[in-house]
Amino acid sequence: MRTLALLLIGMAVCAGMTGQAAGSNLQPGPSANGDDIVIGQSADLSGQHAHVTRPFLAGAHAYFAQVNNNGGIHGRRIRLITMDDKNNPLLAIQNTQQLLQTDKALALFGYVGWKTSSVVQSVVNENGAPFFAPVTGNSIVYKAFNRHVFTIRASYSDEYMYLFSRFPGMGLKRVAMFTDEDGTARKTAVKAMIGASPGDIELVAAEEGAGQDMKDIADNLIEARPDIVLIMSISQAFNTALIKAMRAKGYRGYFYSTSLVYSSLLNSPQEVVPGLIVSQVMPFPWKAQSPIVREYQQAMHKLHVDTFSYLGLEGFIAAKVLTEGIKRAGRAPTREKLIAALESINEHNYKNPGYRINFSDSNHHGSTYVDLTTITRTGAFIH
């Protein structure tokens, strides 16, 4: 099964990521629930990425509930069908086929992780469906233009480039990196980004966690005397073990993670995360100074929810922008009309104060917003 899953991922990447609207004439018919506008989602609800899916969904549901309570879109309610794929590429393909062909989903929404997001692209392209707001920053989704794929979060490259641009002001020069698997491609990418960044930055070490003793890795990294260690693994076990081992051996430098890598550390022991630098691709969700954050908090309060999060805000914004596209697609939206409608959204004609979105017929990556936060001793964010 593992071999077949990896094979399917490779096939989908080759056949799917640059696909054109081969299936654009395959339009959704009446939904199984009458006149609802059906949106489909295959995401991890019970596997290793469930901690990402659930807060994202909470924010999305808050916005969709608001729309439906106000009469829907042109009198039609939005119905989000979410299927659990357990982060299994084979199951994601099956779910996607059912959502598009049986449930007649107008669009796909909020797939979590690069493996499932990439493996379903051939199915997406064959059916001409918009694939909106995948929760990943991986280059496999961002690099090649696909007219069906629309993102609203910055890519991992955007996050790293923003981090490196801040290094001169932070006095950081010596960089090390840690991955949970073969890091050759990531090492090449990091070197390229460092070369394009200001300041005298140097990659001094690169270590991989799979099959290695974490204490030996900690020794190797400390010996390289890095100012900051880039945590590029999504494994909570690896990340926690490495940080604890390096701290125990006296390392007092910085650790860094991207927004989604940090989610793997959410349930780590309290001594692991203090001092961790985290890049964020959404505005700070706990202070209602930004209009979009205020709107998000108010929608959550209406559902009697007082827990806010970056992923929750991301789900809220994703649902809001997709809804705007559906409105622009008219009273009888089709998949092709929705693609054209989404391409028309930009900061000049769509006011979303606090988080700008810019799409066009040649650019489907709606935002490059990145900010930096630091974790305190109590686990809170300093913005």
Automatic annotation (TrEMBL):
Gene3D superfamilies: 3.40.50.2300. Keywords: Signal. Residues 37-379 form the Leucine-binding protein domain. Belongs to the leucine-binding protein family. Residues 1-21 form the signal peptide. This is ABC transporter substrate-binding protein. It comes from Herbaspirillum chlorophenolicum. Transmembrane segments: none annotated.
